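Sample entry as discussed:
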Amino acid sequence: MSEASARQIPPGAWRAAHDAAARLISPLQRVLAIEATSGLLLVGVAVIALVWANSPWASSYAYLWHIELGVRFDSWQFTRPLHFWVNDGLMTWFFFVVGLEIRREAYEGELAGLRRAALPAAAAIGGILVPAAIYAALNVGRAGAAGWAVPMATDIAFAIGVLTLLGPRVHPSLRMLLLALAVIDDVAAILVIAIFYTDGIALYGLGIAAAGVAGVLVMRMIGLRLPIAYLVPGLAVWIGLYRAGVHPTLAGVLLGLMTPVRPWFGRSGFAAATQAHLDAMPEAGDRDALFERLAGVERARREAVSPAERLIHVLHPWVAFAIMPLFALANAGVSLGAASLSGDGLYVFLGIVLGLVVGKPLGVVVATWIATRTGVATRPDEIDGHGIVLVGAVAGIGFTMSLFVAQLAFPAGPLLETAKLAILVGSAAAIVVGLGYGLLTTRRRD
């Protein structure tokens, strides 16, 4: 065995076991690297939740999410149902990643500059206004009128997953357009939650949140870049918003938007710093000097990318493969017997399904056509009309964010169960329409 090949396994490892594990893990790594996997996992979990909630064990499904969890100190306690900790606690990390992606895209991505952002902004605005208008037209004056924002959202995991399933038929520019559209959709959903789905605001809570934000800014000013150090002020922001009556998941967005997007070392700085430490590394004997140089190399490696990029890289798998499926399990369990397709429930169902399946593509297509015809935006040559329709169709997959907004728009009861059912039906229909249209109108590229 050559020295180079020997270094491919850790010291003391048994090569046969190491090679067997590599054969098992490598395909898994390749599968997890595909965006479609997250969407497929959400589909599977949603089906499990739906079957569980309508099975003979439905009472165990309801019982699970009402288990009280929290913290107790003597006479003081803060306990909430498990459903609260999923929707208001874990989903804060989801919104934190959303905030990071918005920050990154605005700094150096598809939203950096007015000309680059014009086309996805127009598509997103159309995809927001038309579904909301369809829903509002069907539900004005009815009990479900508060759910007008439910069909506005786009689930990026599902949408990108559908384009990924189409493979080389889809030009990369379409994926970038869809990603930018979804980011703007998220911004709109966040604003809607903050403005329209927040009850009376308690000023003392906003004071606590402001103190947390100030703590984050001070730590940034002194150059503290260790992520774990920001947990305390971040928790203060979450508690403050909760006490203020604002949905606490918005704390994740605020913290994501405040995360630095510029690397300290960068690629060239990393290479130079690493080489300098390697050149100065002691030959033998001086362990303190050795560890000092190794720490310098580690710092250069860590700071080769921005904190925002590093956190997205670390947190995205946890959000995609743990938090979002858990959210789906907690919220997609629609009790079909409790859902109502008559009276106000019928109009809620129709408003959401038509908003997602018809309103989204119609709004995206019309808005981009107007923007390009008026010269506000320029459509790249590699994106044709069929591509715009395809993006609009898959943007109608609402799921995660739509379920989240529905929880805020409707009280527990028949209308909420009907809204959940409509989201599942509308999102499933959008997946079928997107895949079918993509297969019919696109062709494989080399």
In short: Residues 1-6 have pLDDT under 50 and may be disordered. The first strand starts at residue 68 and ends at 73. Residues 104 and 261 are 6 Å apart (CA to CA).
